[in-house]
Model the fold of this input.
Amino acid sequence: MHSNRILQVESITKDYGTGDHKTTALKGISFDVLEGEFLGIMGASGSGKTTLLNCIATMTKPTSGNIMLNHQNISSFKGGALADYRGKEIGYLFQEFELLDNLTARENIILPLSLHGMTGKQGEQKLRELANHFDIVSVLNKFPSQMSGGQKQRVAAARALIGDPSIVLADEPTGALDSKNARILMDKLSAIHKEQHKTIIMVTHDANVASFCSRILFIQDGCLFHELRRNIRTETTDNFYERIVTVVAQLGGGSANVL
Done:
């Protein structure tokens, strides 16, 4: 496991609206992410976890604070630098897949490469590796309407990884999947994390899904509430799951509230 810090989130705040209508989604959150870490972010609905992920993805600009990726202040990126960052440094996995209906699985996966002029032999080889890993070779020439939900999300995962990003951001990646397909996706993502030391930050409300992570940050009302680290050598996912459920209950009203 590498121990260098790949991401530093420094006192991030995010306000929406002004005056009497102002709401603060994030209230000065700070944390570091190490290279090769699988970080989970949990919290009740409206706690600020997706806002936080969107700030890291540069989809949302923080009101104050800095986000450093590989020692570059991404909060200040504009124009071409911003487009490059989004295209090359970040892979994003959405809850609802966000595949383009008029493109085949293959075309959807290599789209990020096409947009940045990076196709060719290298791209083809990476595509083959990912298609094999995610077990989607059989759907490469199919359109999203011809695939199951599980297949769509695995295609979306391959798309998020095709450009070999520094960091993969996943927003409720199992939210639209049944438990069997959620398990398959998490096994595949977990293997990529272990084999390639890929850094993944995942927002989830599901303690089962979170148990695949190496560390979890719990957010409550825009603040960091608690942190759990899994002892990778000695702790099973089942044991980690039990610890997660305990914290979730303390967050307020049991696991039903963590959405």
